Amino acid sequence: MRRTGLAFFLILAFARALCAADLGAVVVVGPEWERFTNRDGTGLYHEILDNIFTRQGVHIARTYAPPQRSNDLVQAGRADMMTCRDRAAEPLFVARYPMYEADFHVFFNRRQQPEWEGPQTLAGKTVVFRMGYYSERNFPESVTMREVRTPDAALSMVLLGRADYYVDDLNFIQESLADARIPFNRDDYAIQVAGRRQYFPVLLDSPRGRAIEQWYARGMERLHNTGELREIYEKWGFAYPCFNFPQ
What we know:
It comes from Desulfovibrio psychrotolerans. By secondary structure, this protein is of the alpha/beta class.
């Protein structure tokens, strides 16, 4: 009990100190996603973090890496924040407020899978997705999961009949279809909503990680209260997430 109290005191003290002093560079890592984390420094995630940190005098250093590699860098203390995932396992944790919320979809052959009765339709089927993007918590029980490196590979597995459903964000599915290398008849295929989730920054459960999360949370609350946060989402064409900001 004493150790828990001491740890909480140290985290709180560290957070207060960093709020009053310079955080130093906050290293943010994650994949490059169009309209989220564009290489030119624009995008939803970039703009939110710039408003929270950069405008308050805290430098953001951005590194690009796949999801699992990004998690590993945060866990190793080589990055402060990963953007973004719907979950985190110890010693990592997710921030209290999401940066994005959306449905995720499945692409499938309607001739081989003619009936769609909601997400439970996936039970007993094989789903394929990009490595690290989804987990068993996103699907019904008895789903067989396969992970591949690229969206093109995931799409190809469905087109070749090696998987039943390709799972991804709708924008990514549409981009994959536009770039498909395997000819197919679009009328034979369908896209349906398979679930909904929120995406949060991921940080290391440490005094610095908790302090940065506190800065992030306070910044999100401030931008929400001024109306700037909603304007950022509207600018990039995304729906405003269901936040649980304090009243």
